[in-house]
Amino acid sequence: MPTDLITSDRFLLHETYGHPERPERLRAIQERLRQAKLLEGRAVLEPEPASVETLALIHDRAYIAEIEAFAHAGGGWLDPDTYVCRESYEVALLAVGAAVQAVDRVGDGQSRRVFALVRPPGHHAEPRRAMGFCLFNNIAVAAQYALVCRGLSRVAILDWDVHHGNGTQTAFYETDTVLFISLHQWPLYPGTGRGDEIGRGRGFGYTLNLPLRPGTGDEGYRELFDQVIGPRLAQYRPELLLVSAGFDAHRLDPLASMDVTEFGFAGMAVRAWPPEGDRRCAGRAGAAVAARVPRHGVRRRAQSARRKTGATGRSEVTPRGSTWRKYLEVTPMRRAVVLVAVLVLLAGLVPGSAAPAYPSKALEFIAPAGPGGGWDTTARMTAKALAEEKLITVPISVINMPGGSGAVGIAHMVTRRRGDTHVLAVMGSALTGTLARRAVPYTYRDVTPIVAITADYQVIAVRKDSTFNTLKTLLEVFKRDPGAITVGGGSAPGALDHLTFAQLAGLVGVDVTKVRYVPFGDGAAAMASILGGTTTVLSSSLSETLANIEAGQIRVLAVTAPQRLGGALRDIPTAREQGVDFVFANWRGFYMPPETPAEVVRFWEDTFAKMLGSRTWARILQETRWEPFVLTGDRLRQFLDRDLTTTQSVLRDLGLIR
Ligand SMILES: [Zn+2]
Fold first, then answer.
1. Which sequence positions are flagged as catalytic?
2. What is the pLDDT of residues 171-189, one digit of tens each?
């Protein structure tokens, strides 16, 4: 599929009076594309202007209004580099619109790559300031649009313009949702982009600056792409790649001195979009390109976007070779810092992880459900055991994050907590159900599974004064008149509690679509409804119903364990002994965000091993009636894959998914 083009003659209306970034530049490129017959066989599209709302994804509204007013008043010089004419505001909206449109086309699968040839350029524009010929930051708006409006979670911006993309860096300096990589001559305008500018806060490690010596040339760029940029992109696995493809590193550029030939640029393009089959680009690919005119001479700037698919995994990347180092232009004092910074990035480390003390601050355990349910209890009991056994000495706070049977929790972990080493979330069968229903665009491969620790069995229960005394009598009535039975549960339709009863129905030969399942927000709400008499049957986990069982409020008709449980539960029959061969274990465990470093995973595997063998944990198992169910590493990952596949096939058989 060819690279499509977005451009417009309207970009010529942005007049700059003799400035190198002038209308003729765009005209020359358009003309050359036509002469070389490069426009044949590809879509050439007119852009639509971006709205102020879209611009406001990056830019301050007051600043946008200021540029509009300045242009409409006739314009003038904003600074010695940046000229604005009467039409400039509308033309600038069109440039941003072209970049956004490129993202949409790639996102919608209409194009695989898009080149947006636009004026004015954008990568120097800061959220509240125009500079370096740039009014609005086309590529930054496009990236933020992809994240906010199209729901992507990882966008990479590669800026190979010979100048540092200061505005783009500013926009994403504190986020891990955009990986910004810039190669630029050093020293040169605008003076930012030192190697030790590597991001801050959550964005630490997600800005990679490669300040280069003059004369780096084709070979130098190739080595940097092969040894540094390629591995970093492969590690990050962006869903979309945007390129600020300025061509001012070209050897004929009168002011920059990078000595790159057209073959060098071709090499960069090939490396940014490797052929199909390369593991960095499995799946669909696409690109957006925005032209940009830099400070002097022949300049083009392009942004390109490319969509990738593929699971995100924890990865450790080391540079392939070390010849790239000689191209970095740094003062002797800074050299060590830069090399450390780059190596830290390549090792996939995060702040704090290199420090000897881990955990270095309070930990968060996310229970992706309301208080009182199985996930909440798992988080709280684990926190308690870790503290009582002094395995963890920093505070652990349990955060309830209900919604979508774990969907809200995993989306939070993937999009907001990437690389955060101080947060763990509870997972389990219910989350498998959520993933199987594709309620979120993730699987277990998008996060870092740490451990499975327990299994809990399901119970089928009724109110104490119900006329149903056995599972058999319940199922007989259900077979005769499925509509007479309403089943309440704490999970979403198609999730665990529904699935339990649906599988039972299937086993006794009832059309599973006849199950009247009423989903409640959590197990406690489902329990309240059975006690209140608004539902007939409760499908829930044993641990969530234990207190009610002990208080004599409900009658458990069956437990899905392979054999009877002991102690106070010895009188509860299994489904199996009532002639329904049904065993269902609801397992639970913990996972961490994407990009959790290997040493942190090892820490938690060791710590959980100690906890699970402790006296405190033995007591908790006794109290909660959980059974030990312990898996880590490869065995855990294999189990999760299998659990997901099995659940999907059951749901498909039941007609709950396609
Ligand atoms: Zn430039």
1. 124
2. 999 999 999 999 999 888 8
Q: Which fold has domain 4-330?
A: Arginase; Chain A (3.40.800)
Q: How far apart are CA 594 and CA 602, in angstroms?
A: 15
> Per-residue pLDDT tens for 339-393?
555 555 554 433 333 345 789 889 999 999 888 878 999 999 999 999 999 999 9
Q: What three-state secondary structure class fits 647?
A: helix
Query: Would you call the peptide bond into 120 cis, given omega within 30 degrees of 0 as the criterion?
Result: yes
Å from CA of 121 to ligand 1 middle: 9
- CA-angle at 384, arms to 383 and 386, nearest 5°: 65
Taking each helix axis from N to C end, the angle separating 429-436 and 633-653, rounded to the nearest 10 degrees, works out to 60
Which tokens hold the place of 33?
A: 């594309």
pLDDT computed for residue 140 by the predictor: 97
What is the CA(253)–ligand 1 centre distance, in A?
10
**Residue range(s) of every CATH 3.40.190.10 domain in the chain:** 456-586
Q: Alpha-carbon distance 636 to 383, whole Å? A: 21
Which secondary-structure segment (H or E) carries 114? strand 113-116
Average pLDDT over the chain, rounded to whole?
84
Tokens standing for residue 396: 């652990």
The DSSP secondary-structure symbol of 562 reads S
With 0-12 CB in 10 A as exposed, 13-18 as middle and 19+ as buried, what is 127?
Answer: middle
Q: How far is the CA of 183 from the centre of ligand 1 (A)?
A: 11
Considering just the CA atoms, what is the radius of gyration of the chain in Å? 29
Tell me the CA–centroid distance for residue 246 and ligand 1, in Å. Answer: 6
- DSSP labels, 257-312: ---B-HHHHHHHHHHHSPPTT-GGG-S-----------SSSS-----B--B-----
CATH 3.60.110.10 is the classification of domain 334-348+359-454+593-650: no
Q: Residue 209 is encoded by which pair of tokens?
A: 């600056």
In angstroms, the CA 507 to CA 238 distance is 44
Helix (H, G, I), strand (E, B) or coil at 582: coil
β-pairing, 178-185 with 537-541? unpaired
What are 391-425's pLDDT values in tens digits? 999 999 999 988 888 998 999 999 999 999 999 99
Alpha helices in 438-493 (DSSP H): 471-480
- Tell me the C-alpha distance between 593 and 597, whole Å: 10
Homologous superfamily assigned to 456-586: Periplasmic binding protein-like II (3.40.190.10)
